[in-house]
């Protein structure tokens, strides 16, 4: 089955700096890669996703890049703000009949 | 804002008790899921359902059971709670998509403590 590895497990950045979280996946058939943000006391919420036929997708301050050859994808947050502090999960799925496999999560802290 | 609800939000219970964690969604989604989230943050899929009368076990073995009698309702039951069941339980739902994308909407979670 699919195996998703996520790094780093914790990340601290100064407000205004950029943050990058990286994930690798094992199943070359995976074709859908969402990112979720979990704030304290809440369930995860989708913030951005990318399909395998796209190399990059951007939505305001967040962007995701995908390298299918290397089987890795990354989340980039620019101009970080204190409200970006949360746990971020990457995930991968190989087709609509499969389930999402989540990474182990990254605790992002944005220092004021 | 996702319309998916979990009750109770917090539960402290003694060993050996039977408990049911409730999950309801008003979006008409066919697919529903239960995840167990450990203190190290990782999400582990323990049960899922593709629709009414469909239930499957997830990647992580669990002593819990689930049922799906109505589309909107996906309760999780522990017949005899043990301290090892202490965790956060997250329910999620998604619309069945024959293509690539499948946004999962998560509930707020139930934090369970078994003494």
What does this structure look like?
The complex is a heterodimer of chains A (112) and B (115). With 112 residues, chain A is mainly β. Chain A is built from no helices and eleven strands. Chain A has strands at residues 4-7, 10-14, 19-25, 32-38, 45-51, 56-59, 62-67, 72-77, 86-92, 101-102, 106-111. In chain A, β7 and β8 (72-77) form a beta hairpin. Chain A starts with a strand and ends with a strand. Chain B has 115 residues and is an all-beta fold. Chain B is built from no helices and eleven strands. The termini of chain B are far apart. The A-B interface holds A 1, 31-32, 34, 36, 41-46, 49, 51-52, 87, 89, 93, 96, 99-102, 104-105, 107 and B 2, 4, 33, 40-43, 45, 48, 58-59, 90, 92, 96-109.
Short description, anyone?
With 112 residues, chain A is mainly beta.
Mean residue pLDDT of chain B: 91
State the end-to-end CA separation of chain B. Answer: 34 Å
For this structure, the quaternary state is heterodimer
Unreliable parts of chain A: none
- The count of DSSP E runs of length 2 or more, i.e. the number of strands of chain B, is 11
Tell me the number of helical segments of chain A per DSSP (H or I, 4 or more residues long). 0
Beta-strand content bin of chain B = over 45%
User: How many strands, what sense, and barrel or not for the largest sheet of chain B?
Assistant: 7 strands, mixed
SS-derived structural category of chain B: mainly beta
Percentage of residues in helical conformation of chain A: under 10%
Number-wise, the strands of chain A total 11
- Fraction in helix of chain B: under 10%
How much of the sequence of chain A is in beta strands? over 45%
